[in-house]
Prior knowledge:
The chain is α/β, with parallel strands linked by helices. The chain has helices at residues 2-32, 40-65, 94-104, 125-131, 141-157, 175-187, 202-211, 239-244, 272-299, and strands at 70-74, 82-87, 111-113, 115-116, 136-137, 163-167, 217-229, 232-233, 254-264. α1 (2-32) packs parallel to α4.
Amino acid sequence: MAGALLGNLRGAFIVAPWVGYLALADVALSLLLPVKLIAPNLVYNISSGIASSVWKWVQVIFERVNGANITISGDKLPKGESAIVIANHVTWADFYMIQALAVRAGMLGRCRWFAKIQLRVVPFLGWGLWAMGMPMVSRNWMRDQRELDRVFSGIVGRKWPTWLISFSEATRFTPQKYEETKVWCTQNDRPVPKHLLYPRTKGFITTVQHLRKAPHVKAVYDLTIAYQHGDEFHEAPNMWETLKLSDISSQHGYKFHVHARRFPLEELPHTDEELAKWLECRWVEKGEWLDRKKKEWSAC
Ligand SMILES: *[C@@H]1O[C@H](CO)[C@@H](O)[C@H](O)[C@H]1NC(C)=O
Ligand SMILES: *[C@@H]1O[C@H](CO)[C@@H](O)[C@H](O)[C@H]1NC(C)=O
């Protein structure tokens, strides 16, 4: 009891200054909104700087203060390169895995995530996400299409440097969802990826077809995220635990890994059907990779 209380207090103590800072960032971002009309590029740059400081702070809490050891493998991602980023979705902590790579590539402030529209009601955060220009999607295709047009026009028309990040499975991996994936894949004659849900192809195809018109967007990064806790694969700390637990890796025994692959955009196929197939291949390979990682972790 006392231990749990201390843990929560520790979490509150660590997080409170960041929430205060987020509130200030919200004010700054709001003041910039009217300036956007006359100096959109400048506002994008300043907003990116503010976003970078907000996210860097959370990253420092997770990695340095709370000792999460994120290991990285695969292709080295070039500094400052704009890209379409896709990843598997396990849990909230995925956010830190992707940011760990963005920090190294100097793109943290340029990350634009497809966020659920529901997040808009989260105090401070929702407003901040909106004011930073994060694409907010609802699964209502008409509404989403307007939002996508807005995001694509910034990247294509104004050449804004961006990592445009989406979780292709659209929802988190759960054993129950996995059963649904298996049924769906069997019915539709598709391969069942291991440890993953079958990816949604529509958003990916739309994104690639639009952003290949932007010469500065050079690649698709395919990220594979894996966790381990004790003997349990794909088990990660929840949101509050990532903020309150100390020595997450050394004491609590959590492992965090992200594997990156870089595909030049010009090498991707051109038709929608081929792009859907391309994404499916990535997911099958990703499943094989996760399976090897699971065996590797369970052996040690
Ligand atoms: C915004 O940042 C980019 C990249 O760092 C730079 O090339 C551009 O000149 C900046 N634009 C403005 C208006 O500050
Ligand atoms: C992080 O984990 C890797 C792989 O298990 C290990 O080699 C490395 O020493 C760890 N780093 C820290 C800071 O504990």
